[in-house]
Specification:
alpha/beta; 5-stranded parallel β-sheet; two-stranded parallel sheet; Zinc Finger, Delta Prime, domain 3
């Protein structure tokens, strides 16, 4: 009766899907396991991304006892039982879900057990631990961010579940069509739990035909309650819609931008929408209207806190704001021009007067000698060379005149550039 996602939890570190920045070769959690030098930690990130799986894998790889509790619903007495077990039999790995809801009484009980190492705490939370978790717990743990899984990682886990005859669906004659599999990996937005549980529902609720349970795209859509966008059965339209979304805002067509975002909303793809809006704000609007960029950050934060369906409201406000704002891509053009010089080997040496002078002997090397402190001069500016000698005539920023803010920046830039080269 256990869900497929529960049954397929990894039994050792090698079975963890994704999160290679933590469990890949040479990475921190794998190093801990290999050295058998575990420390308490907090894993934070979106639901279904592997927090519990990593804890289970650590326990399986180290052969320590593994217990799971919830900080919100389990009592201090439950913690006491774990502590007694640790005292009797040695180290216990405790996965404490929703650790941000740990009250002071339970926290005070846990702290000495974390100090002496009898309990290795692995806290799991969807909240930012630097904000939501008490400093006393934070100071005794390492904090690791768990990220949404890639489509490739979810595909690996799905195929593993279909083949596994003991824990998975391997004993059933399942055929998952390519289009259904692709949509399953895309539409669950990096949430492996949703993908596996949706797959299991599809398999168990679909009758076999000619001895085979065939899972098609419409069945997966129904079981995960998401619709394939644009009717594109191959899923390729997902990227076309994202492209059209940005290009519509860049082109100031607010209605088209709302339409394409609506299609992304229908798939429940909040991470793609919010990330793309942040990129658009700074790439396409930028200095044309910096306040719109700031408002977009606020709207994204609100949307992530609210979740769907309410998230659509601040997102719509941001799209309208960005689409109708003055546009400027001068920021991205400027940094890319600077990078092009650097990558072409045109970096040059930092001028001596700008070099670090905060160490004994710097003056003998002429480092920092002759530097003019701008605040000592009228208007807090003085002419001096900042670029390396070989690049002293280089210019990267090309101002645009589409908004009041950048017009003012442009006037200041040209005025300072003329004074510097006069």
């Amino acid at each position: 009766m256990q869900p497929l996602a529960y049954r397929m939890r990894p039994t050792n570190i090698d079975e963890v899907v994704g999160q290679q920045h933590l469990v890949g070769p040479g990475k921190i959690i794998r190093r801990m396991v290999a050295a058998k030098m575990l420390s308490s930690m907090i894993l934070y990130g979106p639901p279904g991304t592997g927090k519990t799986s990593i804890a289970s894998a650590i326990a399986g790889s180290t052969h320590y006892a593994f217990r799971m509790l919830n900080a919100a619903t389990d009592s201090k007495k439950d913690l006491q039982i774990v502590a007694e077990e640790a005292k009797m039999s040695g180290t216990v790995i405790l996965l404490l879900d929703e650790i941000h809801r740990l009250d002071k009484t339970k926290q005070d009980f846990l702290l000495p057990h974390l100090e002496n190492g009898r309990i290795i705490l692995i806290g799991a939370t969807t909240e930012n631990p630097y904000i939501a978790i008490n400093p006393a717990i934070r100071s005794r743990t390492q904090i690791f961010e768990v990220k949404p899984l890639s489509e490739a990682a979810i595909k690996t886990a799905v195929e593993r579940a279909l083949k596994d005859k003991e824990r998975g669906l391997g004993q059933q004659p399942v055929e998952l069509t390519a289009t259904a599999e692709k949509f399953l990996t895309q539409a669950t937005n990096g949430d492996l739990r949703s993908a596996l549980n949706g797959l299991e529902l599809a398999v168990k609720s679909t009758p076999a035909t000619a001895g085979t349970i065939t899972i098609t795209l419409p069945i997966i859509e129904e079981c995960i309650q998401r619709k394939a966008i644009s009717g594109d059965k191959d899923g390729d339209a997902h990227y076309d819609v994202i492209s059209a979304f940005q290009k519509s805002i860049r082109g100031s067509d607010v209605d088209a931008a709302l339409h394409y975002m609506g299609r992304l909303i229908e798939t429940g793809d909040l991470p793609t929408i919010t990330r793309r809006l942040m990129v658009i704000a700074y790439e396409d609007i930028g200095l044309g209207n910096p306040q719109a960029c700031a408002r977009t950050v606020a709207a994204v934060t609100a949307a992530e806190k609210l979740g769907f369906p309410e998230a659509r409201i601040p997102l719509a406000d941001a799209v309208i704001d960005l689409a109708l704002s003055p546009k400027s891509n001068s920021g991205i053009v400027a940094i890319d021009a600077a990078l092009a010089d650097i990558r072409a080997g045109k970096a040059g040496s930092v001028p001596d007067q700008l070099r670090d002078a905060h160490y004994q002997g710097a003056a003998k090397l002429q480092h920092g000698v002759g530097y003019k402190y701008p605040h000592d001069y009228p208007n807090d500016w003085v002419k001096q060379q900042y670029l390396p000698e070989r690049l002293k005539q280089a210019t990267y920023y090309q101002p645009k005149n589409n908004g009041k803010y950048e017009k003012a920046l442009a006037a200041q830039y040209h005025r300072l550039l003329a004074a510097q080269r006069h």
